[in-house]
Prior knowledge:
Helices cover 40% and strands 7% of the residues. The protein has 6 helices and 4 strands, in the order αααβαβαβαβ. By secondary structure, it is an alpha+beta fold.
Amino acid sequence: MKKSTTGLLLGSALVVGLSGCASSASQSSDAAGVSSDRAWYQHPAVCGLAGGLIGGGIGYASSGDSDEDTGAAIGTTAGATIGAMLCADTSPAPVAPAPRDTDGDGVIDADDQCPGTPAGVAVDAVGCPLDSDSDGVPDYQDQCPGTPAGAEVNALGCEEDLVLRDVNFEFDSAILTMGAEQILEDVAGKLRANQNVRVRIEGHTDSMGSEAYNQQLSQRRADSVADYLASQGVRPNRMQTTGYGESQPVASNDTDAGRAENRRVELGEWE
Length: 271
């Protein structure tokens, strides 16, 4: 058989054989989502070896008698290169999934020691809600921030019942002032975040007027605070109201300043 004919046959074999490998390799790459395994004959090294053998044969067969070795060497190199390239895996490298932060607090799940933090709550480096005064009640639930270190507190974060400062009412009525409503909005927000806590709301007055009238007024004022908290999303069954009238003064009723202190609403844990 003439060398030219042999070269043509080998060239045809190279095209058909390597095209088949490349086609199979491409199909395997397309199915990479199912399996990353490839048949042995689709590996670039195998294709390169096959291409080198066929290319060397083509180079030898198509060269003259005086340069057979050179033709074979060139053909081997070219065939190996083409074969390896055709069978190379050109599918994109898999992209690693982004770290998850399920509760959206800025700390990825793998590092989050307090998963499930409510949206918007400030957290520390390990994903736990901030507790600035270290009293065991996180800031977003703490009705008494800034408690002294080591102090024993209740579930509200307070050492004792909390006097709701500046929660005032219209003169001789149970109607909350606008300023009082703003203060109670913050109280309500922390109570909503602290669902397992029930509270006592207690009204007090000074000694001006009759004792019976003052008791009724203090009850209506305690009820008014509870009604407003309920309107802000605090369940009514979590609140108990009591009016004590003038019976529990914290200052003298003989001065204006003392009477102002006695007119108050207190918030405490209802156990």
